[in-house]
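User: I'm writing a short methods note and want a consistent example. For Hopanoid-associated phosphorylase, I'll paste the sequence; you return only the structure tokens, no commentary, since I'll be parsing the reply automatically.
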Amino acid sequence: MTVGDATVLAVSGMTFESRIAAGPGVTTLHGYRDRALAEVLTTALHSHRGVISIGVAGGLAPGLSPGAVIVASSVQDGDVVLPCDAAWHDALRASLPDALSGPIAGMDAAVTTVAAKAALHRAHGALAVDMESHIAARAARDRGLPFAALRIVIDPAERPVPPLAVAGMAADGSTDIGAIVRGLLKAPWELGGLIRLGRDAAAAKAALARARRMAGAALGAP
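Assistant:
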């Protein structure tokens, strides 16, 4: 966690997402998921006036390419819909005219198969899914703080996520290269999928950095 006198808390899963999100007026938090994220947010929000979930996400809607930018209108948390702050949403959309607007979903576990992505999209109409937005939105609601989400598609709905990519996600938000190498020794056929995901990740990372620059002051709660 980057500590400072910022007033907006940017919540991400991975280290690179947090680095991109950082900037004037923004405190970053990454490397926590599920219950651990919920617990740290109960104390992390005392000095902030807004929460934004920012980073990459799995594509759920057909046709969304890696790098597609989404400004969420709401977050699906199980059967509960958590709305995003309307003014903040509109400010982000004004700064990001090419971004899509629509619901996203939050899940405690990675959604990796094409069938699971399709089922989640059919159930809720969500454009994308990540593992932090629902927890951050829930915490913001409980604290009475405005919430927004800016997410970039990394893996399209039409392609599965290689199991080794999930295994390579370290608990602290970094990439566990050792786990990936060990996994490839056991399952070398996954190499092609990892290479393709690497290209998708590069496109998503570049799009996230560009969206962060374009959003500028709009990343802060109105």
